[in-house]
Amino acid sequence: MSEPTIQELFSLKGRVALITGGSGYLGQSLSRALAEAGATVVVGSRDLDRAKQVVDHLPSSGGAKHRAVVLDQMEESSLNSGFDAAVAEAGQVDILINNGQQGHALDLTNVTAEAFNKDLQNATGYFLLARRMRDHVVSRGTSGSIVMIGSMYGVVGSYPDAYDGICVASPVQYHALKGGIVHMTRHLAVYWAKDNVRVNCLSPGPFPSEKAPQAMVERLKQKNPMGRMGVPHELKGPLLMLVSDAGSYVTGQNLLVDGGWTAW
Prior knowledge:
This protein has a single domain, classed as Rossmann fold (3-Layer(aba) Sandwich). Helix content is 41%, strand content 14%. Strands 3-2-1-4-5-6-7 form a 7-stranded parallel sheet, sandwiched between helices. The longest helix has 28 residues. It is globular, with a radius of gyration of 18 Å.
């Protein structure tokens, strides 16, 4: 058996990738990474028009025809219909990126039980979609890769003084959610390894959008060993390693892309 080249290991040609939240701030870069590596990309979003806009700007390596589907991971009926639509339109799904995120800007001082429980539904949606993916792959007798999008805040606590006097603290329910997703990744990985389904977690560090308060961003920079924030394209390489054959012996891992934040 010949050794595959680096180009072959990182290629996604002939594969179909479904990404939730593909029209979001980080989702757009993740979608481009998948397309640039040769995959057919199905962009899932609550807003079909936004998903179509992303699809229209994705590169088409080798003639891949990208698709857009309505998919809300917070609603079981929507995530099932979205997954079914992806399979119907693209013929199969080989890669799932659980990236969609909905939450409330409420912190530990004012979050309600209703908002807390609602935000944790993201984890339920991640699991249900992952199970659909696992069952789909097994029914086809092939292999698959699932990547959960976690956060450095699923591993460490935040710095209260980074937010004090500027904005609400990092939501406690967000920390509970992302910590759960990191550990759910490990649990699913060990159960589904025998099914040739790899499950990993990609956890970004500080990647604030232009909407984030600048004063908070400046404080966060002081907390980071690299002294700066991440930009979305810096997640493209790590994602590609996890979903491609370059990571064929990697499962159950949480890859932190945080500029050294969790190394303190």
